[in-house]
Structure formats: C-alpha cells, structure tokens
Amino acid sequence: MSRRIDKSWVVFVSHENDAHDRCVDLFRRPDGTHGFEEFRRDVEDAGAWTPVGYFVDGVYATAADARAAALASVGWLADALPKP
Questions:
Q1: Its pTM surpasses 0.70
Q2: DSSP 56
Q3: Can you tell me the distance from the alpha carbon of 68 to that of 61, in angstroms, rounded to the nearest whole number?
Q4: In this predicted structure, what is the pLDDT of residue 1?
C-alpha cells in the first residue's frame, strides 16, 4: 500500500491537472534513487492530498526514468505537462 512521501525525500517537481484535484510528485531519495506518486485532493478530505497511485515504492536510477514511468502509468499526466 502507498504511503505519503517520506520527509527525507526531496520533491523536485509537482504536476497538477487543470482541475487542481490530481497531482504527480517526482522525488529524489537520500540514496540518490528517484520515484513518483499520484495524489488526489477532494473537498470531502478537507483539501488534503491523498496518495492514490501506489507508485511510491518504484525505484528509478534517474529523474528522467521516474518521469517516463509516471507518464506511462498516469493517464492524465501528459495533458498536464507544459507544451514545448
């Protein structure tokens, strides 16, 4: 089961959808590995971000690898990224 991002991990980017009710955080762990997690925010939860993707345990060697995995795993993410 997913858990919130550990306080020792550094979130280096967070992407929200246009409705601002979903986000994906990309993070770096102290050991240099990277990961990501998907969250939702609902009125019923008083606006707190709740993990929903169960991706936090994935371990990636680089930030680019974590981003690619997030794009492959989270259907709405590509639409939320800035367009070149």
A1: yes
A2: T
A3: 12
A4: 35
Report the distance separating Cα 66 and Cα 72, nearest Å. 10
- What letter represents residue 13's amino acid? V
pLDDT above 90 covers a percentage of the chain that reads 69
Pairing of strands 49-51, 34-41: antiparallel
**In this structure, how many other beta carbons lie within 10 angstroms of the beta carbon of residue 37?**
26
Looking up tokens 């008083």 gives: 46
Q: Rounded to whole angstroms, what are the CA distances from 12 to 15, 26, 34, 43, 45? A: 10, 6, 10, 26, 25
Residue 3 is predicted with a pLDDT of 57
36-47 mean pLDDT: 87
SS3 37: strand
